[in-house]
Write a structure and sequence with these properties.
The chain has 112 residues and is mostly helical. It has helices at 3-32, 36-41, 47-59, 63-79, 84-93. Bound molecules: 2-acetamido-2-deoxy-beta-D-glucopyranose. GO terms for molecular function: lipid binding.
Length: 112
Amino acid sequence: MSIVTKVVLVFAVCVCMVAINADDCQQVLTQLQPCMNYLKSGGSVSSDCCKGVATLNKAATTAAKKKQFCKCLQSEAKSYSVKSQYASSLPQQCKVNVAYPISYSFNCSSIH
Ligand SMILES: *[C@@H]1O[C@H](CO)[C@@H](O)[C@H](O)[C@H]1NC(C)=O
Protein backbone atom coordinates (compact mmCIF):
# COMPACT_ATOMS: atom_id res chain seq x y z
CA MET A 1 0.00 0.00 0.00
CA SER A 2 1.41 3.36 -0.90
CA ILE A 3 1.77 6.16 1.61
CA VAL A 4 -0.81 8.17 -0.26
CA THR A 5 -3.33 5.35 -0.13
CA LYS A 6 -2.73 4.98 3.58
CA VAL A 7 -3.19 8.67 4.21
CA VAL A 8 -6.37 8.70 2.18
CA LEU A 9 -7.67 5.67 4.08
CA VAL A 10 -6.92 7.18 7.48
CA PHE A 11 -8.57 10.38 6.43
CA ALA A 12 -11.66 8.54 5.18
CA VAL A 13 -11.96 6.63 8.45
CA CYS A 14 -11.69 9.83 10.47
CA VAL A 15 -14.31 11.65 8.41
CA CYS A 16 -16.60 8.67 8.69
CA MET A 17 -16.24 8.48 12.48
CA VAL A 18 -16.96 12.17 12.85
CA ALA A 19 -20.07 11.72 10.73
CA ILE A 20 -21.31 8.86 12.91
CA ASN A 21 -20.71 10.90 16.05
CA ALA A 22 -22.55 13.87 14.65
CA ASP A 23 -25.52 11.69 13.71
CA ASP A 24 -25.69 10.17 17.15
CA CYS A 25 -25.54 13.55 18.81
CA GLN A 26 -28.23 14.73 16.45
CA GLN A 27 -30.35 11.79 17.52
CA VAL A 28 -29.77 12.58 21.18
CA LEU A 29 -30.69 16.19 20.58
CA THR A 30 -33.84 15.30 18.63
CA GLN A 31 -35.07 12.85 21.23
CA LEU A 32 -34.42 15.24 24.08
CA GLN A 33 -35.95 18.27 22.40
CA PRO A 34 -39.25 17.86 24.33
CA CYS A 35 -37.20 17.74 27.54
CA MET A 36 -35.51 21.10 27.06
CA ASN A 37 -38.00 23.05 29.14
CA TYR A 38 -37.60 20.70 32.03
CA LEU A 39 -33.82 20.52 31.65
CA LYS A 40 -33.49 24.29 31.77
CA SER A 41 -36.08 25.26 34.33
CA GLY A 42 -37.54 22.18 35.99
CA GLY A 43 -41.27 21.68 36.45
CA SER A 44 -43.00 18.65 35.07
CA VAL A 45 -41.65 16.18 32.55
CA SER A 46 -43.77 15.62 29.46
CA SER A 47 -44.55 12.14 28.20
CA ASP A 48 -42.91 13.02 24.87
CA CYS A 49 -39.74 13.79 26.77
CA CYS A 50 -39.83 10.46 28.58
CA LYS A 51 -40.48 8.66 25.32
CA GLY A 52 -37.32 10.24 23.98
CA VAL A 53 -35.33 9.21 27.03
CA ALA A 54 -36.58 5.65 26.72
CA THR A 55 -35.81 5.58 22.99
CA LEU A 56 -32.26 6.77 23.57
CA ASN A 57 -31.77 4.33 26.38
CA LYS A 58 -32.89 1.46 24.15
CA ALA A 59 -30.63 2.67 21.35
CA ALA A 60 -27.60 2.58 23.64
CA THR A 61 -27.05 -1.13 23.25
CA THR A 62 -23.27 -1.22 23.41
CA ALA A 63 -20.70 0.39 25.68
CA ALA A 64 -19.40 2.36 22.71
CA LYS A 65 -22.88 3.77 22.07
CA LYS A 66 -23.39 4.58 25.73
CA LYS A 67 -20.08 6.40 25.77
CA GLN A 68 -21.04 8.33 22.69
CA PHE A 69 -24.47 9.29 24.03
CA CYS A 70 -22.91 10.21 27.35
CA LYS A 71 -20.50 12.57 25.61
CA CYS A 72 -23.26 14.01 23.45
CA LEU A 73 -25.40 14.63 26.51
CA GLN A 74 -22.58 16.43 28.25
CA SER A 75 -21.68 18.64 25.32
CA GLU A 76 -25.32 19.42 24.56
CA ALA A 77 -26.07 20.15 28.19
CA LYS A 78 -23.25 22.65 28.15
CA SER A 79 -24.28 24.37 24.95
CA TYR A 80 -27.95 24.59 26.00
CA SER A 81 -27.13 25.66 29.57
CA VAL A 82 -29.00 22.75 31.06
CA LYS A 83 -29.14 22.69 34.87
CA SER A 84 -27.27 19.68 36.16
CA GLN A 85 -29.79 18.87 38.91
CA TYR A 86 -32.56 18.54 36.31
CA ALA A 87 -30.43 16.52 33.91
CA SER A 88 -29.39 14.06 36.59
CA SER A 89 -32.96 13.56 37.82
CA LEU A 90 -34.41 13.04 34.35
CA PRO A 91 -34.12 9.23 34.22
CA GLN A 92 -35.79 9.00 37.63
CA GLN A 93 -38.55 11.40 36.58
CA CYS A 94 -39.23 9.20 33.57
CA LYS A 95 -38.71 5.96 35.49
CA VAL A 96 -36.12 4.91 32.93
CA ASN A 97 -33.10 3.06 34.20
CA VAL A 98 -30.11 4.69 32.50
CA ALA A 99 -26.92 2.74 33.12
CA TYR A 100 -24.76 5.77 33.86
CA PRO A 101 -25.21 9.02 35.76
CA ILE A 102 -26.19 12.02 33.64
CA SER A 103 -23.84 14.57 35.07
CA TYR A 104 -21.33 17.16 33.98
CA SER A 105 -18.64 15.65 36.15
CA PHE A 106 -19.14 11.99 35.19
CA ASN A 107 -16.26 10.64 33.10
CA CYS A 108 -17.93 9.10 30.06
CA SER A 109 -14.76 7.17 29.24
CA SER A 110 -15.30 5.05 32.33
CA ILE A 111 -18.35 3.36 30.78
CA HIS A 112 -17.61 -0.16 29.68
C1 LIG B 1 -11.57 9.46 32.23
O1 LIG B 1 -11.27 8.09 32.28
C2 LIG B 1 -10.25 7.73 31.34
C3 LIG B 1 -10.14 6.20 31.36
O2 LIG B 1 -10.30 5.68 32.63
C4 LIG B 1 -8.96 8.43 31.72
O3 LIG B 1 -7.94 8.08 30.82
C5 LIG B 1 -9.19 9.95 31.66
O4 LIG B 1 -8.04 10.61 32.09
C6 LIG B 1 -10.36 10.32 32.55
N1 LIG B 1 -10.67 11.74 32.33
C7 LIG B 1 -10.94 12.56 33.33
C8 LIG B 1 -11.28 13.95 32.95
O5 LIG B 1 -10.91 12.21 34.51
